[in-house]
Hints:
The structure holds two protein chains of two kinds.
Chain A (H helix, E strand, L loop, with lengths): L3 H9 L3 H11 L6 H14 L9 H19 L30 H7 L3 H8 L4 H12 L4 H8 L3 H25 L4
Chain B lengths: L2 H13 L5 H13 L1 H18 L9 H22 L8 H4 L14 H14 L11 H12 L18 E11 L2 E10 L2 E8 L10 E2 L7 E5 L2 E7 L3 E6 L3 H10 L4
Antiparallel strand pairs in B: 1-2, 2-3, 3-7, 4-5, 5-6, 6-7
Amino acid sequence: MGADHRVFLEATLPHLDVVYQVARQAAWDGQDPEDLVQETYLRAYAAFGSWRGENARAWLAAICLNVARSQARRRRRRPWEVTGSGLPDVLPLSRADGGEGMADVADVVIAGLDAAEVSRCLGRLPEPQRVCIVLMDLAGYTAKEAAETLGCPRGTVLARVHRGRRRLAQLLAETGVAHGRP
Amino acid sequence: MDGRDRACRLLAGFLTGDLDPAQARRWDEHLLECEACWRAVREDRAGRQAAQMLRQPAPAGLADRVAFAVEVAAAGQTAARRHGSPPARSSGWARSGGWQRWPRLAGAGTVAVAVLVTLVVVLLPGGHQTRSVPAAVAAVADYAQAVPPLARGQHSVSGGRAAPVEVGHPVTVTAGGQKIVLRTWRLGGTEAVVAVSSKPFPMPPRAQGVAGRGMAWSVRIGKLGLYCLNGRTSELVAAPVPAAELAALAARLPLA
């Protein structure tokens, strides 16, 4: 047995927790996130020879997302399906009337956080926004790492994560209002 | 980039501490006066706080499982190189029933195939049927279950007194925090896996103590019989034989 697998594990196992965060959100219904993590590591190990020692976290997350997508394609299902209807692509940055008559979105969200509801609402976000939120807010990546993972400019990641968070907060607020909270 | 997009990026940059001091100061001042942008800031924070609720630590044992899978993959690549076979790349090979063709693959490539089959079956989603037993025992059982049965007389342990012949090379894995060395032996018509660890293999819930053998125990997992002997090291024998034949089989294997 060669020694390279030990080098590989030393370089990548410290990031298991963040890969797991990504896998939990990227896994399609019925897929075990742990299986996805394992498959991610096996793909990464197979490609370890060509890895040039860049950011291991970004590299692993990119592999995890690719594995989830390719497995979902094989099953003809989309792991990052957008189920929301009528959601605007871009939320207005400013609301001139200040939302008169409506509860403050942030207050409603913070008062009524429920993990299952958050997960459901996160699942309703468009994929680009959801991926950015998963990478930055769940897995703890910096915007630069997320940009490396996704192969897009850092400014794009920042804009997506900001829009995604606001949309998530608004979806949760709507749910909160629907459940009778103020 | 339109004005709204630019404002969005600037605000996102402000929230992540990404702006230069002069820009950040301007945003600070702006937020004191602009209710709409202040709401955007509050929504951003609420959304981030909500998303962070979903963080969960990786389950205990996942690191062992991943390390085990990678070590088996490494062993598979080494064996494949040694025997001139291509390294395992896809679990689709197993799904397509490739492992069922094992009996026809006699000859020089068998060792490599055995290791590759081990790799694929162990790594298949849902291939872990032994999750209720301790990780170290489950790893040995998974490995032994992945060794394909021989085409002839699988359960003829008691027949013939031929010496056991080692098949392939030892494989070292780590599971449940235990380092385990796995060797495969051919004895008569049976393949038996002998796992050796410096730590005792944990006794699975349904295991039974074996009388007169100190801390020995045996258990059945699927078609496998497992027999553990604890001495200076802990040795776990796994083979597709009836429980009554386990002790006889273990006695004929080169245990410590």
